Amino acid sequence: MGFETAFNQVNVTFGDFQALKDINFRLEEGKIVGLLGRNGAGKSTLLSLLAAYRKPSTGTVTIGGQELFENPLLMSQVTLSYNTDYSDETDKVKDMLDAAASYRSNFDRSYAEHLAEQFRLPLDKQIKELSNGMKSAVNVMIGLASRCPVTIFDEVYVGMDAPTREIFYKELLEDHARHPRTIILSTHLVSEMDYLFEEIIILKKGRLLMQKRSDQFLELGLSVTGATQAVEQFVHGMKRLSTRQLGGTTSVRIYGELSEAQHQEARNLGLELGNVSMQDLFIHLTEEEDNDAIEK
Amino acid sequence: MSMSFDEHKPIFLQIKERIEDQIVNDQLKEQDQIPSTTQLVNFYKINHLTISKGISLLVDAGIIYKKRGVGMFVAEGAKQKLLEQRKDVFVDGYILPMMQEASKLGITEKDIIALMQQVKGSGGSGL
């Protein structure tokens, strides 16, 4: 059975608020996907559909061509880790492991214990007594060790300090290499996580703004650096992301690809062309001004 | 090994060059296994698509080869091949910019040769 994931004309409304509007996309199985969007863009709503926590108001969500909602065959194939409220959780970390091992068919207990060690999780402590970062680490541990064909992390890093997040990213990449599966991560820590994603999906105000391979996404922008006058002349009429100036040198980041003739012109003007970051592009694309029309 | 990248050059080319450097410097010898894509992703914090793009240039050029299910290795004759490539671009990459800069500064060819002998004589710059 394949695990291609698809959203087909999905809408979600809460009362008269439309949280997701006409979402259509397909995810090939086996990739690490970044789901990006500002606060309130609809990331968590989209992921809760994917975990079958709720049913779309209209449209369908399918995995391997089968409708997902209340589908007993698919339930065990998807796991969603999110910022769970553990304030009353008297179970110990190891009880949680036992439970996960009993209801997750692919759960790898020894890998979970390896993760607990990496995160320095005390197995005998009650979960409610752990720090916020440790609680998040429990979620990551269960999420990764479940080895579900569709594994989702919804801003699961909350409360983790930087070294702990590093461990999370490293373990995620290594385990994905050993056991390829679809992993979807929602985040707004774009600059820190950009290298993890093979593909990205950007939501803006409940709509799908863009779905692209990350390398193709990064080609959507570039920086132009050189003498101020030459740079200004060259970027005239182009879509500008940001400008930095130091003395007589200006560096402008632009949105858009250049033709071969423009590359030649840049060389003739003595300008240096460079890369822009995923974060720069993300901020630009999700700014409040109305730029939805740029690209789908 | 530097962790940061030149922002004015495609990263995949820089990945390729770093692996080449390690072969030229004998940090990676022929038939040595090179780090896996995942190890490189974790080390450089660069997307695996970018890493793969750099690596496939090296595979296409016959510098490294893949053994299915085992990993990637430095090919026989890789170092020699790289040295020859580098000699081919030595003029454009080093001699030409040096001469352009020298002419800006009014340094003659004779001066350049004298300077080179001076540097060599002082044992500087790892010569």
Automatic annotation (TrEMBL), chain A:
PROSITE patterns: ABC_TRANSPORTER_2. It holds the Pfam family ABC_tran. Keywords: ATP-binding, Nucleotide-binding. SUPFAM superfamilies: P-loop containing nucleoside triphosphate hydrolases. Residues 5-230 form the ABC transporter domain. InterPro entries: AAA+_ATPase, ABC_transporter-like_ATP-bd, P-loop_NTPase. One of its GO terms (molecular function) is ATP binding. This is ABC transporter ATP-binding protein.
Automatic annotation (TrEMBL), chain B:
Keywords: DNA-binding, Transcription, Transcription regulation. Residues 9-77 form the HTH gntR-type domain. PROSITE patterns: HTH_GNTR. The keyword Signal does not apply. This is GntR family transcriptional regulator. It comes from the Bacteria. SUPFAM superfamilies: Winged helix' DNA-binding domain. The lineage of its organism: Bacteria, Bacillati, Bacillota, Bacilli, Bacillales. One of its GO terms (molecular function) is DNA-binding transcription factor activity.
